[in-house]
C-alpha cells in the first residue's frame, strides 16, 4: 500500500522551474537530428504541417493525461500513482501496467542515451582541439566510423555523462532537476537561436536560406501519403517524450495552483518550437553545402561537422552546436532516470541518494552493452522501446484517464466543466489520442518487423 502523502512530497519551487524542467525532459537529441532527418526523408513542409497537427490534436492531450495521473495519484512514483487511482476508481490493477511499461522504457532509453551523449561530448572536444582542421569530407566522416568501432575511446565521456545524470537525480527535485533545468535550458535556447540566426545569415548569399525556408514552410501536398502521415504522427509522439512515465512523475510534484491544461499546451508548443528552430539551424547549412539531409544520425555526426568546420570560426561554431546538443541530452537523460529512481525510493524505502546510485549503476551496466554493440543499441531503440513500449504505455494512460477516472477527479484536476477549450482537450484525450496511438503502435510494429506490408 502506498504510504506517501502528497503533501509530504517535494514540490516544484515555482511554475517557471516546473515548466523549464518539463520542457527539458521533452527537448532532446530527437528534436535536433531526428526531426530534421524525418522531415528531410518525408516531404519537408508537408511532413512538418502534419507533425504540427499531431502535436496539437494528440501530443498535448496525452501530456495532459500523464499530468493528471501524476498529480491525482497519492504517490510520487508513476507506478504507485497508477496503483492508487485504480483502487480509488475500483479499476483492475492491470491498468498500472502502463506505468510499469513507461518506467521501463525510460530506463532502457537512458541507458543507450548515455552512449549518444558520449559521442556528443567527444565532438565538443574535437572541435575545440582542432581535430577536424585541414581534413577533407571523407576524413571528417571517417572519424565517426572510427569512434563507434573503438568503444574504449568512449569510456571516459560515457562515465562522465552517466555520472552527471546520477548526481543530478540524487540531489532531488529542487537541488538537482530544477538546478539543471534553470541553468541548462536558458543556455540551450540562447545557443539554439544564435546558431539558427548564424546559419540563416551565413547561407543567405548561396541561396541555402531561401531553399531551407521553402523546403520547411512551403508544403507540397502531393507528397503526403499514409506512410508519411504515420511518420509525422510518430515523430510528434516521440519528440514530446511520451510513454516514458516522465510527465506522470513530474506531475506528482505539482501543486494545485498550477493549471495542468495550460502547462500541457505550453510544453507541447515549446517542444515544437525547438524542433522548428533546430530545422532553421540545420537545413540552411544542409542546402548551402549540398549535404544529404536523409542521413539520420550520420547527418549529425558525419555531414554537419563537414559544413560547420568550413564556416568562419568553424571550431567555435561546431563546439557551440554540440554543446547545445549536450545540454539537451543531459536534461532529457535526467528526466528519463527520474521515474525509476522515484519508484525505487518509494518501493524499497530508500533515500534518494541510494536509489539514484543503485538505479544509476544498473543504467551504466546496460549502457556498456550498447557501447560495445550498436546492434544491441538499435534493438533497444528501434526494436523495443520506440515501436512497442512507448505507444503501449501512452495508450494505457489515455484510455485510463479518458474512460476510467471519475468525473470528480477530472473536475478537481482540470476544472473542465467551466471552460470550453479544456472540454475539447478532454474529448481529444478520450477519442482522438487513443485511436492515433493505436495507429502508431500498429504502424511501428509493421515497419520494424513486417516492412513489406506497410502501405
UniProtKB/TrEMBL annotation:
Main location (coarse class): membrane
One Pfam family cited in the UniProt record for this chain: SNF
Family annotation (PROSITE patterns): NA_NEUROTRAN_SYMP_3
Transmembrane segments: 12-33, 45-69, 97-125, 154-171, 183-204, 232-253, 265-286, 306-334, 355-372, 384-403, 424-446
Keyword set, alphabetical order: Membrane, Transmembrane, Transmembrane helix, Transport
Topology within the bilayer: Multi-pass membrane protein
Organism superkingdom: Bacteria
Transport recorded as keyword: yes
Localisation per UniProt entry: Membrane
The UniProt record lists the keyword Membrane: yes
Any coiled-coil regions, as ranges: none
PANTHER family associated with the record: TRANSPORTER
Official protein name in the record: Neurotransmitter:Na+ symporter, NSS family
Species assigned in the record: Paraglaciecola agarilytica NO2
Amino acid at each position: 500500500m502506498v504510504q506517501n502523502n502528497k503533501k509530504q512530497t517535494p514540490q516544484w519551487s515555482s511554475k517557471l522551474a516546473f515548466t523549464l524542467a518539463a520542457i527539458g525532459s521533452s527537448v532532446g537529441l530527437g528534436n535536433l537530428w531526428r526531426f530534421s532527418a524525418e522531415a528531410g526523408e518525408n516531404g519537408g513542409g508537408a511532413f512538418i504541417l502534419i507533425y504540427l497537427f499531431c502535436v496539437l490534436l494528440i501530443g498535448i492531450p496525452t501530456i495532459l493525461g500523464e499530468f493528471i495521473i501524476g498529480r491525482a495519484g497519492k504517490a510520487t512514483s508513476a507506478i504507485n500513482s497508477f496503483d492508487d487511482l485504480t483502487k480509488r476508481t475500483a479499476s483492475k490493477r492491470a491498468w498500472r501496467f502502463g506505468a510499469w511499461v513507461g518506467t521501463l522504457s525510460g530506463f532502457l532509453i537512458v541507458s543507450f542515451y548515455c552512449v549518444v551523449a558520449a559521442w556528443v561530448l567527444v565532438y565538443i572536444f574535437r572541435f575545440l582541439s582542432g581535430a577536424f582542421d585541414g581534413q577533407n569530407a571523407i576524413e571528417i566522416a571517417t572519424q565517426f566510423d572510427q569512434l563507434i568501432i573503438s568503444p574504449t575511446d568512449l569510456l571516459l565521456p560515457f562515465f562522465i555523462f552517466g555520472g552527471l545524470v546520477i548526481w543530478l537525480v540524487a540531489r532531488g527535485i529542487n537541488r538537482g532537476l530544477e538546478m539543471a533545468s534553470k541553468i541548462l535550458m536558458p543556455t540551450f535556447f540562447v545557443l539554439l537561436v544564435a546558431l539558427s540566426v548564424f546559419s540563416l545569415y551565413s547561407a543567405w548569399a548561396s541561396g541555402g536560406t531561401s531553399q531551407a525556408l521553402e523546403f520547411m514552410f512551403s508544403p507540397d501536398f502531393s507528397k503526403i501519403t499514409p506512410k508519411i502521415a504515420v511518420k509525422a504522427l510518430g515523430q510528434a509522439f516521440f519528440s514530446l517524450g511520451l510513454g516514458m512515465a516522465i510527465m506522470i512523475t513530474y506531475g506528482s510534484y505539482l501543486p494545485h495552483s498550477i493549471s495542468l491544461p495550460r502547462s500541457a499546451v505550453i510544453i507541447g508548443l515549446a517542444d515544437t518550437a525547438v524542433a522548428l528552430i533546430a530545422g532553421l539551424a540545420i537545413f540552411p547549412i544542409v542546402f548551402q553545402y549540398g549535404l544529404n539531409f536523409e542521413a539520420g544520425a550520420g547527418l549529425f555526426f558525419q555531414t554537419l561537422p563537414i559544413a560547420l568546420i568550413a564556416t568562419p570560426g568553424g571550431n567555435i561554431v561546431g563546439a557551440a552546436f554540440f554543446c547545445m546538443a549536450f545540454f539537451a541530452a543531459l536534461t532529457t537523460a535526467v528526466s528519463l532516470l527520474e521515474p525509476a529512481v522515484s519508484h525505487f525510493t518509494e518501493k524499497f524505502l530508500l533515500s534518494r541518494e541510494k536509489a539514484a546510485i543503485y538505479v544509476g549503476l544498473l543504467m551504466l551496466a546496460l549502457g556498456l552493452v550498447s557501447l560495445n554493440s550498436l546492434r544491441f543499441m538499435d534493438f533497444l531503440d528501434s526494436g523495443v522501446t520506440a515501436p512497442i513500449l512507448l505507444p503501449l504505455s501512452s495508450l494505457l494512460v489515455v484510455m485510463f484517464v479518458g474512460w476510467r477516472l471519475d468525473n470528480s477527479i477530472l473536475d478537481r484536476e482540470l476544472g473542465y466543466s467551466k471552460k470550453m477549450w479544456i472540454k475539447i482537450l478532454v474529448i481529444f484525450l478520450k477519442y482522438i489520442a487513443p485511436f492515433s496511438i493505436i495507429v502508431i503502435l500498429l504502424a511501428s510494429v509493421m515497419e520494424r518487423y513486417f516492412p513489406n506490408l506497410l502501405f
